[in-house]
Amino acid sequence: MTGVLASVWLAVILAWLVFALAGWVAGAPASVWIGGVVGAAAVLAFRDTLPLRGMVALLAPFGVMLPALALRHMGAKLGLPVVPFSALELGAFLLVYVLFLASAMGAVPVDIYRIGYAPLPVAGMVLAVCLYGLATGNWFLPLVAVLGQAFWVLGWGSSNWFDHVTHVLLVPVVAVVLVTRLF
User: Fold this and answer.
1) Could you please report the per-residue DSSP string of 123-179?
2) 69 and 140 both lie in a single domain
3) CB of 174 closer than 8 Å to CB of 93
4) Mean pLDDT of all residues in the chain?
5) Potential cystine with 108: which of 22, 88, 103, 177 (Cβ 3.0-4.6 Å)?
6) What is the per-residue pLDDT across 63-80, written as a single tens digit (0 to 9) for each?
7) Residue 1: pLDDT over 60
């Protein structure tokens, strides 16, 4: 199932990339359709080629977050109601996530990444994210947390919950979003 899931997530990421590029010359509905068709066709036709395997090698484990953000962005461009993250939320996430990555790399004496293997702390973190979603009215993060937990419990992908709900590419993405909000 992990291979199928990786192919689906890769198709979503490719669809988002094509959607973003097509958005320069076409409207949102057309660019979403173009992205979806190209993403699915590329994964189906070129799944075992060097470029797509290279993308999997660079982006894996995909987890839930990257495809969910891609789908969220495309949905927002189609007019679906999407609650944006505030600059404060993004800044706090960036600070905490960079510290988390430093911890996971051994730069900090506490290894927070190890908590992602344990059922009770993961359940507590998922509950905390769900309560945050309830308090803010933003259901995107609880959805990602619960889906990540489901995939983690089912053994679809990484054996660490954090790999399902975070990705190192979030650092430059969040940094770019914060910088673009300044202008």
Assistant:
1) HHHHHHHHHHHHHHT--HHHHHHHHHHHHHHHT-S-SSHHHHH--TTHHHHHHHHHH
2) no
3) yes
4) 91
5) 103
6) 899 999 999 999 999 999
7) no
